[in-house]
Every structure is written in structure tokens, then in C-alpha cells.
Amino acid sequence: MISPRFGRLALAPLLIMLVGSVGSAAPPNVIFFIADDVSWNDFGCYGNQAARTPNIDRLAENGIRFDQAYLTASSCSPSRSSIITGRYPHNNGKAAELHQPISVHLPWFPERLRQAGYYTALSGKHHMTSTEPGEGQSGRPTAFDHVDAGRVKGNSGGSANWLQVTQQRPKDQPFFFWFASYDAHRGWDGDGQWNEQAYGPIHRPADVVVPPFLSDDPQTREDLASYYNEVTRFDYHIGVVVEELRRQGVLDQTLLFVLADNGRPFPRAKTRLHDSGMKTALVAHWPDGIAWTGASDQLVSVIDLAPTVLSVAGCEIPETFQGVSMVPLLKDPQASIRRYAFSEHNWHDYEAFGRGVRDGRFLLVFNQRVSLPWQGPADSVRSPSHQRLRALQQSGKLTAAQADVFLAPRPAVALYDTQNDPNQLVNLAGSEPFAEVEERLVGVLERWMEETGDSVPDKLSPDTFDRQTGERLPKRSIDAEGAMTPGEDRGADQINAPGPR
User: Fold this and answer.
1) DSSP per residue over 458-485, as a string?
2) Per-residue pLDDT at 204 exceeds 60
3) What span is annotated as the signal peptide, if there is one (predicted)?
4) 343-493 has CATH 3.30.1120.10 classification
5) 184 cis-preceded (ω within 30 degrees of 0)
6) Is 366 helix (H, G, I), strand (E, B) or coil?
7) Strand extents, DSSP E, 67-130
8) Of all residues in the chain, what percent are helix, strand and coil, respectively (each to 5)?
């Protein structure tokens, strides 16, 4: 899978020096393209034959496609907060849960870039805040010189201003752009704003790929086709920015990352610890700084992005960061930076506490709310796809894969061989042939929880939506008094230990 760039073999040692010895050359520009609610295998370069992503596919062909990249949370704001601080969700304070702020003392990596002379901009979905400073505390420094929501009439996908931001940037500074779309978050608006001249033909329901845990019916296929349309719109605007960078003559000096904050907003994806929710596409493109191209099967976590960017920019990495720089992976396809990747499932519309650890082949899931189903967030529950599964449930026609959407009680420990069971449908926990693997990963997960200050509070944030309909519950029925976020009782936001890696 490894293909050295034609004509650049003689430059490989120089490139390695450039990446490994920051400060020896002008710092690179950096752009994050972050999709909203898109699963890892819904890009063409990851094997999806139906979803059109030609621009991302070209970046992958001429860069590195990471095949073992994992999120720390399959939930919008906790995931984004984790990326920007380089920390696990429970180590970010209240931000472990949806729509909650990051503890104010924790630095964001764009702050450090800005202080180092970068022009920084956020265009599109933000979804990150800090707590108000307490007595004796200072507020966070400005992270972004420019912020806009990326929406205009005819394009509410969050990507409408990316080209303008790229064109109007100061030309005498390196830049960092956090380009975050709302595509493909429900409810779908891409269908009504479709520009066939730009995006190509609308996706046909007959062509979509229906995973085994969904119902293969007209309503679900239409739902997936609308989702694919938003994935394609995200891809199109990446291509617009790439062409502008090429026109400006700075594409080769710009490190691009393409990823998503969590899995698709369908049953058994978003908020799940399984790969359909927690695995992310991750494409890196940087002609002047990547020494090889192809597919990498090395394990990475999105908390590794922050130290990577600061490393190549020549900035000091804060002691609060728990991730590790990916620079060695950009130099050498055989390099490795971690043995394990960890993920969390905390409150997102519904009470939950789940933890996961991966070693590259096996996924072990730990669940402390076994009586509750993992049906997905409220927007997914309200979807046609989920409601079609409910109809099958009521008529007793669910397959085993589909029934997992409603399963309760759930196992406290589950073990999956992701290599031979890509959809994680067969629980190997308690199986004698895998007893050693289970024991090892349980020990690793327990050590990680202990060293990073994770905990299971006596009372977690309760459900705020109905689990059957996805409708909001009356406030009078919600008892949140005394609820705590994971790790809050142990002061986990003050703990910088990364745990095993």
C-alpha cells in the first residue's frame, strides 16, 4: 500500500529533517476539515462505493489514510472539546457531557498557535466553550482571530465561508483553520439546497449501503441517501479550498487533516463505542512534510492531533495534553506511537456510562448502566430509520444485529474481534479462547481509569428525552439534582496523566 512520491525519493531525508526538527524551516499552515456525524466508512477512500467523496479520495491518494483512528467520544461537543485540548472527555471537566464547557484552566491548541504568530480562524460549527473563571483565575486567551458560523442563504452546511476565509487571510502569517461543517447532522437540509452543477447528481436511495443493523426498506434508504448528499456537499467544499490553496501556491506547505466528530446519526452509530460510532476517517495531506503516502494501520487517537500540530509548528506542548505527537507516523510507515486507544460514552440526551479500549484488533467495552439500552441520541431516535426498526420490533421481525439497538439489559463487559467481526456483532467476553485477551484489556482499561481520574458517580445526568420517541421530557419529570459528570468527584480536570498508551 505504500507508494513513495515520484521524483521525491532523494528529498525524503530532507523531509524527515523538516518534520522532525521544527524551526529549521517556515512553519506549515494547518487546516482541520471536520465533518459532523459521519462514520468512517462513508467516504469513498474507505471503501464506500455509493457515497461520492472525490476530493477527500484524492487527498488520501496523495497523503496518508489512517485506518485505525479513533475518537474519544461519539458525541459532538465532547469530541470536539477533546480534539482541541488534547485530553480525554472526563479530563475536560463538565465538557465530558454534551453542550457543557471545558474547564477554564485548560489550554486550547489554537491559542498556542496564535501566540506563536499564526492567523487562526474557525468557520462553521463551533460547539466549544470554557467555564467562567473563578476567583483568582483568568479567562482563556483568544483562540481564533476570526469566527463565523459558515452559513449563508442556500447553504446552511457550515462550509459556505471557507473559500472566503482562505482568500482573505493575511498573507504574511502562517495560518490555522478549523473548518467544521454541520454536514451531515440531522435534520437534512442538503436535499433542498442541492446544487447539481457543483455536487453532481443527487444520491439515489437504490444505491446506498444499508448496514446490517438497519432495516433495508424505502424509508431507511431515503434517509441514508439524504445523509450521503450532505457527505458529498462536505467533500465539495473541501475541494474548493484545496484548489484555492493550489492557486495561491501554498498547498504543498499546508498540513490538511480530514476527520469527523462522531459516527452517522443513525441507530447503532452516533454515541456508540462500536466502530460505527467511534472510529473516524482520518486523512493527512502535506506534500512538503509527509515522507510517504498510502494506508497506515497504526493506532491513533484524535487527542494526538493537538500535540502533532504544535510539534510541526515549533510550539511547546502544554503539560495538560494527554495525546502524543503523530509526527513519527508522518515520517515512517512502520513507526508506532501507541498500543491502545480509549473512548467514552457519557450523557448525550440519555443517562449513560460506557468505556472502551482498543489494541488495533480487539475492542473491549465496559458498561456501568447495564439496565439501559444504547438506542442512540434523540435525533437518531426520531429518524425514519429508527422508527422503522421500532415497527419491526413490535412485529417481532428484528434480526439479531437490529435487536442490539434495543437490547436491555446489556452486558457489563463485551469483547469484539474487530478484524473478523467488523460490525462488532459477536460478543466474545467469557469465551475461553479469548480469556487472556479479555483479562489483559480489562486490566489496561482499569489502569487507564485509575490513572486519569475517571469515576462512576453515584448519580449521573438523567434522561432528558423519551427513549422510544426521542421527544423532550417535561422539565418537571427530570431530577438532575446532585448529578455529577464522570471524574468530577476525583478532580479529573486537574489530572494530566495520560494513562497507558
Assistant:
1) SSPPPP-B-TTT-PBPPGGG---TT---
2) yes
3) 1-25
4) yes
5) yes
6) strand
7) 69-70, 119-124
8) 35, 15, 50
Q: Note the pLDDT tens digit of each residue in 49-95.
A: 999 999 999 999 999 999 999 999 999 999 999 999 999 999 999 99
Give the class (CATH, top level) of 9-338.
Answer: alpha beta
Give me the residue spans of the domains in the chain.
9-338, 343-493
Can you state the angle between helices 218-248 and 384-394, rounded to 10 degrees? 150
Question: Could you check whether 9-338 and 343-493 share the same CATH topology?
Answer: no
Cα angle 201, 48, 274 (rounded to 5 degrees) comes to: 130
Cell triple for 423: 460490525
pLDDT above 60 (res 7): no
Question: Residue 481 contacts by C-beta under 8 Å, 6 or more apart in sequence?
Answer: none
> Which amino acid is located at 242 in the chain?
V
Distance (Å, rounded) from C-alpha 250 to C-alpha 87? 31
Closest CA to 289 of 499, 21, 2: 21
pLDDT per residue over 261-307, tens digit each?
999 999 999 999 999 999 999 999 999 999 999 999 999 999 999 99
User: Are the C-beta atoms of residues 404 and 365 closer than 8 Å to each other?
Assistant: no
492 Cβ contact partners less than 8 Å away, ≥ 6 residues apart: 90, 91, 93, 452, 453, 454, 455, 486
474 Cβ contact list (under 8 Å, min separation 6): none
**pLDDT tens digits for range 368-381:** 999 999 999 999 99
